[in-house]
Amino acid sequence: MKKQRLVVIILLLIIILIAVAYYIFRISNNTDVADTGNVNVIFEKIGNIEKHNCENTEAFISQNKKGVVITVKNLGSKGAYAIIPVKVKNEGEFSAKLYSIVEERSDKNTQIKVSYDGIGVTDRPLLPGETTSFIVKVELTEDLLDETIGAAFQIKLNYVQDRSDW
Question: What is the bridge-based pairing of β-strands 67-75 and 50-52?
Fold first, then answer.
């Protein structure tokens, strides 16, 4: 009876030790929590804006370099557009993947379409020090009756740490 009790106690101690070791291993490797503290993708540059049948188009990078503010005024007729080239850079220590594109618009005008070319949520990471360029196109998609229309909005890109090589 004493031998059985001793064996049971030893087995319980072994199980507890394995559980503690596993817990310490998971905490030390941060396998449950994404470390985004060193993911730092910034907007680096706005290129020359191409305008077609629109006036007073502006784009600038926010002070913290985490967003781009775009204002397109006086889109005159269907097919009027502005193309804004944008460059982002990964200044962080880790590879980063685009998680989402956030577009904050002051208006909800469905006649104005905003599209992105050259960027998207993919499996391709942005390596530390690497840059990538894309364009933002703002276009009037419907005819208006003797009026002009415009849009103002901010774009933010949400990046997360790339863990595909772990």
Answer: unpaired
> At 61, is the pLDDT very low, low, confident or very high (cuts 50, 70, 90)?
very high
Phi/psi for 17 (5° steps) reads -65, -40
On whether the CB atoms of residues 87 and 41 are closer than 8 A, the answer is no
Does 166 reside within a domain? no
Residue 7: phi and psi, rounded to 5, are: -65, -40
Task: Quick: pLDDT tens for 92-130.
Answer: 888 888 888 888 887 777 788 889 988 877 778 889 999
Backbone phi, psi, residue 3, to 5°: -65, -40
Domain extent for 18: 1-33
Q: How far apart are CA 159 and CA 156, in angstroms?
A: 10
Q: Which of 19, 15, 27, 159 is nearest to 89 (CA)?
A: 159
106 in any annotated domain: yes
